[in-house]
Amino acid sequence: MESKIFTRLLVFGAMNTAAFMFSQNVQNDTITRGKAIDEVVVTGNSNPKASIKTSTSISTLKLKDIENAAPRTTAEIFRTIPGIRSESSGGEGNSNITVRGVPVSAGGSRYLLIQEDGLPVMQFGDIAFGTQDQFTRFDSFVSRVEALRGGSASVFASNSPAGIINFITKTGEKEGGSITQQLGLNYKNYRTDFDYGTRIAEGTYAAVGGFYRIGDGPRKAGFNSNNGGQFRLSLLKKFDRGSFRVYAKVLDDRTAAYMPMPVSVTGTDSDPKWSSLPNYNILTGALQTISLQHDRTLGNDGNIFNSDISDGMHSVSKTIGAEFNYDLGEGWKFEEKIRYAANSGQFIAPFPASVSKGSDFFTAGNFTNFGSAVYAGTNTPVDMNAYYMKFALFNVKLNNFNNFVNDFNISKKWSQVKMNAGLYKSAQDINMSWMWNNYIQEVSDNNARLVDVKNTSGTLITDNGLLNYGMKDWGNLKRDYNTKYDITAPYAQVEINATDKLTIDAGARYDIGKVSGYFSGATVTYTSRDMNGNGVIDIPEQMVGSNDNINVPVNYRYGIFGYSVGANYALNSKNAVFARVSQGGSASADRILFSGYNYTNNNDPALDAVKVNKVNQVEAGYKLRGAGYFLNTTLFYAGTKEANYEATTQRKTENKYQSLGVELDGYYRISRSFDVKAGLTYTHAEIKNALDPTIIGNMPRRTPELMFSVNPNFSRDGFSIGFYLIGATKAYTQDSNKLMMPGYAIVNPYVSYQIMKNLSVSVNANNIFNTIAVTEAEEGSITGGNGIVRARTLPGSTYSASMKFDF
After folding, report:
1. Cβ contact 91:225 at 8 Å
2. Residue 397's closest CA among 466, 464, 298?
3. Is the four-CA dihedral 423, 321, 95, 468 of positive or negative sign?
4. Residues 6 or more apart in contact with residue 418 via CB below 8 angstroms
5. Which InterPro entries does the protein's record reference (predicted)?
6. For residue 25, what pLDDT is reported?
7. Per-residue pLDDT, 373
8. CA–CA dist 441, 677 (Å, integer)
């Protein structure tokens, strides 16, 4: 196996040697497709500079690049960035994102943070039911997106050792604006984006922007599942020796959350055939239904809590921030970034706990004294040959996810040396309430019906499809989290221009974390309560899941030492090589609560082993620039040590992982009208140690060996046409390395035409060939099962048209 890996790396090395030889006769860099071949980057760098002069791997996406890629969600934007695996099948949030084979052991993005204007949206990327992409929306107010993989992220940000994705917004310095109207052609989507920037006085600039949309999204939920928008404002004052900027954002958006769906899988684990079940299309279907739009449960405060299921992922964020920089003279500079975000909302979505055909479902021990089953609200017996599911309705109230972030930095520059030091301070609240219920529903993507069950005496043991108030099979799960994470992180970096060609940088960071608060609901408790108000204690009301009201205190500290040392050597004006060694970590937040540790004993070795997840990285690369092309090649290694607890599987893990591979990022202009961009990442990953000895040596779940994207583009006389080809090779559903998810390649074509100077129209498509692209699955094998796997897939083909007016 190792010989095959090195053979492949040698092939890539030969490709780059040939590219180096070719480059010796090429002229200087030029501007192409509206962007510089070698752009100045600011993310993960103390001294903004052209990317060829940095010892990091960083990609820049401009607004037009993103529009052409036809992303239906924010996470889909990241699929075209080499090295980043974005499982964007969950809707406008709850996406799993990682970098270069670093594992996705639960959900979210534990090792990568999303930033807006250099500060994190959330301090932790993997908060259960409150992931950072839920509070991030892309709109035309974004100027560009910079994506840093590995490298200096360990020094310049907390809890993001694998990388940073930074949304950089407009400031109004560029006069003008735009209005874009987008319409879904084969799905319900109506969206308006706008932005405008102008100078309002000498050295003073203002910008506004945002979006609003309404529709059903790419999957048919039976109601308007997407409804909301975002508004942003920026004011910038520039003066002789610096600038001051204040900005604000208001996000209030409701979108559907798509959980794993019932999928038919036949064949064998190594050669499975994935397809839709009867009455449920895995490319267009959703588990949400018009038959279930209201949920009533017992709140953790003892009061009845009512929810509208169409709220889905309801994300509310009210943000205000400021940036100040000043040139103190004699090489000294001062920079301050500060932001406060009031975040809250709700997450409500059905998650299938078990699925089978009616003849098995109702007689397999799911119900005590089963007598009969009818479709809720009728006397019609269910079809025993159809499929049914018992699902947990994930109902989580995001009470308080507020955060405060402040990053202070001062630097000094001499002729060949630049030093900077900073102090980062943040506070993140995680206050949420889990209030889940248990329902019975048919498997259908067309207004699925709820099912009522009667016992042998003919008495209903359900109430309009509701089986349990609480999630009885999983230990109730009536939880309250109320914790605060306080981080103080001093950091410093030095950059030395040793020669005209050699630049060396070294930096270090130390995170001092303090965790306080409490949680409740660790023990299973039930009460009797008339939930529906009919004056009778019905069977589902005899055991209503309730919070135990026993507050478990949380009071511990942690420390994370991170460093990064890199060097960049310019062979000439068009070629450079670089290398970097880094260490960093990400603190465990809510994921380790309810796991039985002593959360008030800093000297407890069991707690100490799971407080911080550590990542060590090595990377070396070659950067090539030419008059009409560029190529970035990076060899990488990452070693990860982490702990986790997964609510849906009730599993606790403590694993060590290793990944190594190569990442390619390139562009080539074939003619004045035709060019191609492409990215490719090869990863060999392995579980090196684990609590479960049977998985040691296996490939981490959902990690493909190869990921790729290709974007050919033809443009002439205001007409542009092209497509994105995005794909990955096969991967295992679970660490047991049995059931295989198939490889896939999806095609997203686009065409646009500039009707006049300030008016353009475009049509784009996503997954035009309806490719089944499985991104995750709950089951690890089909052996001994019933041929049904709960999995998430990318949506099927969606088409949209847009008109953009620039002014």
Report:
1. no
2. 298
3. positive
4. 46, 47, 411, 412, 494, 495
5. Beta-barrel_TonB, Beta-barrel_TonB_sf, Plug_dom, Plug_dom_sf, TonB-dep_rcpt-like
6. 36
7. 94
8. 46
- Rounded distance between C-alpha atoms, residue 9 and residue 1, angstroms: 13
Residues in the chain: 807
Cα-Cα-Cα-Cα dihedral sign, residues 695, 161, 481, 292:
negative
Beta bridge partners of 206: 198, 235
CB 421 within 8 A of CB 256: no
Q: With H, G, I as helix, E, B as strand and everything else as coil, classify residue 585.
A: strand
Q: Which long-range CB contacts under 8 A does 456-460 form with residues at least 24 apart?
A: 456/369, 456/370, 456/371, 457/369, 457/371, 458/371, 458/372, 459/539, 460/538, 460/539
Angle at 335 between CA 241 and CA 150, to 5 degrees: 130
Give the pLDDT of residue 6. Answer: 36
Q: How high is the pLDDT of residue 46? A: 62
Q: Please tell me the distance from the alpha carbon of residue 195 to that of residue 213, in angstroms, as a whole number.
A: 15
Catalogue the long-range contacts made by 749-757 (C-beta closer than 8 Å, 24 or more residues apart): 749/721, 749/722, 749/723, 749/724, 750/68, 750/70, 750/720, 750/721, 750/722, 750/723, 750/724, 751/719, 751/720, 751/721, 752/68, 752/719, 752/720, 752/721, 753/718, 753/719, 753/720, 754/718, 754/719, 755/718
Q: Considering only CA atoms, which of 259, 458, 271, 433 is closest in space to residue 349?
A: 259
DSSP string over 34-60: TEESS-EE-TT-SS-EEGGGSSSEEEE
* Residue whose token pair is 């409150």: 130
Q: Which is it for strands 437-442 and 466-468: parallel, antiparallel or unpaired?
A: antiparallel
Phi, psi of 29 (to 5 degrees): -65, 150
**Local mean pLDDT, 10-residue blocks, the chain (807 residues):** 40 39 33 50 67 81 83 87 90 90 86 95 95 94 91 90 94 95 94 97 96 92 92 96 97 96 96 96 96 94 94 97 96 96 97 94 82 94 95 96 97 93 97 96 96 93 94 89 98 94 95 97 93 93 94 96 95 92 95 92 89 95 92 95 72 87 95 95 95 94 95 95 96 96 96 94 95 95 93 95 95
d(CA 35, CA 804): 20
Pair type for strands 204-215 and 226-239:
antiparallel
Q: What is the largest CA-CA distance in the chain?
A: 89
Q: Which CATH fold would you assign to the domain 1-8+43-305+319-806?
A: Maltoporin; Chain A (2.40.170)
- For CA atoms 257, 215, 726, 286, give the dihedral sign: positive
Q: What local confidence, expressed as pLDDT, does residue 774 receive? A: 96
Q: Where are the alpha helices (H) located in 425-519, listed in sequence order?
A: none
Would you kindly state where each structural domain of the chain is located, as residue ranges? 1-8+43-305+319-806
Q: Report the chain's terminal Cα–Cα distance, integer Å.
A: 58
**Which residue in 163, 164, 166 sits closest to 615, CA to CA?**
163
Joined tokens for residue 449: 């019906």
Interatomic CA distance for residues 72 and 797, integer angstroms: 11
The two beta strands, 163-169 and 112-116, are parallel
Of 751, 746, 752, the C-alpha closest to 766 is 746
